[in-house]
Amino acid sequence: MIYLELLWTFFKIGAFTFGGGYAMLPLIQEEVIAHDWLDIKSLVDFIAVSESTPGPFAVNIATYVGAEVGGILGAFCATFGVVLPSFIIILIVAKCFAKFSNSKMVKGCMAGLKPAVVGLIGAAMISIGGTVFAPAGIHTAILSDVSFYAALVIFLFSVFLVFRKVHPILIICISAVLGILFGYMIDYLI
Asked: Which ranges constitute the DSSP H helices of the chain?
């Protein structure tokens, strides 16, 4: 039954991913592709949409995948599945953290989780970045593709704005406008 499968899959993703929505990307990508719920291009497109909509990233993407696969009930099951582990874990942690916060084991666990989370986010960035900048794969012909340069300009400009401490909402809005403008320019040029 698809609803139980969505609930269980997103429960596992929520339970075994530390570090927030971005750290979930490799697991989400692997599970969604393995179950043949979405193709990589659709997933990357929705990641972009999910970034520009209100709400937690993991909830947005779980809701979208669930809706695509199982309609409203599928969206509910996937969303409930992804948030339930965090809810359970935070209840347990809140109850126990003060008691164990000075434990060497807890400190060691946290020290080990931090670099793993950064690694997961980096892996997702490389995987999704490849799809954004080189959707047909990396080859020399990409250097003659106008859309590659448009994506690169938007990316570099966004990085520049981040370092200038521009508010993320403004960066998302500017990037959307630039994407629309570049899209029209590319269609006009081609």
From this structure: 2-15, 21-34, 40-51, 57-100, 104-133, 146-163, 168-189
Cα 181 off chain centre by: 25
- How far apart CA 80 and CA 27 sit, in angstroms, is 17
Q: Which tens digit of pLDDT belongs to each residue from 117-146?
A: 788 778 877 777 777 777 766 777 777 777
Read off the pTM: 0.56
d(Cα 29, Cα 38) in Å, to the nearest integer? 9
For residue 124, the SS3 value is helix
- Are 26 and 120 in contact by the 8 Å Cβ rule? The answer is yes
CA atoms lying within 13 Å on the CB side of residue 184: 5
Every domain of the chain and the residues it spans = 2-133, 135-190
